[in-house]
Each structure stands twice: as structure tokens, then as C-alpha cells.
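Worked problem 6 (solution included).
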Amino acid sequence: MAYDQQLAARVRGWFGERQVAFEEKRMMGGLCFLVDGKMCVGVEKERLMARIDPSGYDAALQRKGCVPMDFTGRPMRGFVFVNPEGLRGDSGLGGW
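Solution. The predicted structure is:
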């Protein structure tokens, strides 16, 4: 289960700066961050895995670096991958 350690550190820092209580679990081929016991975001390889409101799924796919999450070969509404080009800077990561 290889994942981008620097991206994971950025996610930890983002939660920490906002004093959001979270836990980390290795799952879904990477490292997931849970808030109130529910997956919020994760790091899989060099990309972010984000849980989003299914009603905003189509709009999210229009954002830079965002692609459908398709672990099983079929996209999962409510989850997306964000490739590195969509994560540059604090606003790139924080927007997810």
C-alpha cells in the first residue's frame, strides 16, 4: 500500500490547523482520514480520494485534476480522485 507521504502530511496539517478531530486508517489501497467515524478524504498513490455530495458529483468532475473514482471499473458517485495538478497550493487541497 504505497501512498504519497507528503500529500498525507498536507492532509494531516490541514485538519490540524483547523483543529478538526480525525483518525487515520489504512484502507482502499491507501490511507484514509475519517471525521466522526466516516471517510472524508484519503491518499491513494499520488492522488487524493475525496468523498463529496453526490449532487455535486458532475460539477466536481469539471474541476482541474478531478476524475471519477473507479476501483471496480465503474465510477462510484460521491467519490472522486483528484490528481496532483488539482492539489497545488493550499487552495487546491483545501477546496476538497
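Discussion: The helical segments are 5-17, 57-60, 89-94.
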